[in-house]
Amino acid sequence: MTAADPRPLTGEPIALDLLNTRWLMDGEPQDLFAGAAGLTRLEGLAVWLESAGLAGRSRADAPTLVHLLTAREALSRAVADPADGSARALVDAVLEHGRIRATLTAEGPGERAEFADPAWGPAWTAAYDYLGLLGATPERIRACASDHCVLRFYDVSRNGTRRWCSMAICGNRAKASRHYARTRER
Predict the structure, then answer these.
(1) Helix, strand or coil for residue 24?
(2) 46 half-sphere exposure, CB direction, 13 A CA radius
(3) Is 186 exposed, middle or buried (0-12, 13-18, 19+ CB in 10 A)?
(4) pLDDT tier at 180 (50, 70, 90 boundaries)?
(5) Which residue of 29, 59, 103, 107 has the fewest C-beta atoms within 10 A of its own C-beta?
(6) 3, 39 contact by CB (below 8 A)
(7) Please, which residues bridge with residue 154 across strands?
(8) DSSP string covering 97-166
(9) Could you read off the pLDDT of 148-158 as tens digits, one per residue?
(10) Is a pLDDT exceeding 70 seen at residue 174?
(11) What rounded mean pLDDT belongs to the chain?
């Protein structure tokens, strides 16, 4: 049985979910792949694979972790500065390890990802997902507006104005802080 996911934000598209394996708790950096919540690196990987829906297709082993860390760094740099050519080259380097094969299924046309080395599967899948986000609405890839948060999210709100990773956590803190400041002025 896989341990509970300790991250404050889960369920984002897989590219951003991979970035959200690093977060702040009480101002201290946490890393799901480096011992957060008392998990070993490989236990953290198993938690993430389960959360991302990749557990049945990927093994929680050292090569998979190394490749995911490579992809996380590449995506982190690309999301932070989409104009950075070296970041784009890092994402491309991850994408070199897989491809999409067109297939014909009982339901009609389909696609299947293929990897020369299956350990690259989760990393490649995250990088490929990032391409999908860029192709849809890249302006909706956002960083939480809180100064004390490093999480990323994909804004699926109707009008595209989401500011917080979570209204219950960061949004509430901001509102409480503004309320406190207003009441102190009186």
Answers:
(1) strand
(2) 12
(3) exposed
(4) low
(5) 107
(6) yes
(7) 141
(8) TEEEEEEEETTEEEEEEEESSGGGHHHHHHHHHHHHHHHH-GGGEEE-S-TT---EEE--STTS----S-
(9) 999 999 999 99
(10) no
(11) 92
Most distant CA pair in the chain: distance in Å?
69
Q: Please give the backbone phi and psi of residue 148, each rounded to the nearest 5 degrees, phi first.
A: -110, 25
Quote the CA–CA distance of 37 and 172 in Å, as a whole number. Answer: 24
User: Any residues with CB less than 8 A from the CB of 135 and at least 6 apart, and which?
Assistant: none
The pLDDT, as a whole number, for residue 34 is 96
Name the amino acid, one letter, at 145: A
The predicted-structure confidence for 21-71, as pLDDT tens digits, reads as follows 999 998 999 999 999 999 999 999 999 999 999 998 999 999 999 999 999
The number of residues in the chain equals 186
d(CA 127, CA 1): 28
Q: What is the pTM of this model?
A: 0.90
How many Å apart are CA 169 and CA 179, to the nearest integer? 15
End-to-end CA distance of the chain: 54
Residue with token string 């709100």: 157
Cβ proximity of 123 and 137 under 8 Å: no
Query: In this predicted model, what pLDDT tens digit does every residue of 61-98 receive, in sequence order?
Result: 999 999 999 999 999 999 999 999 999 999 999 999 99
d(CA 74, CA 90): 5
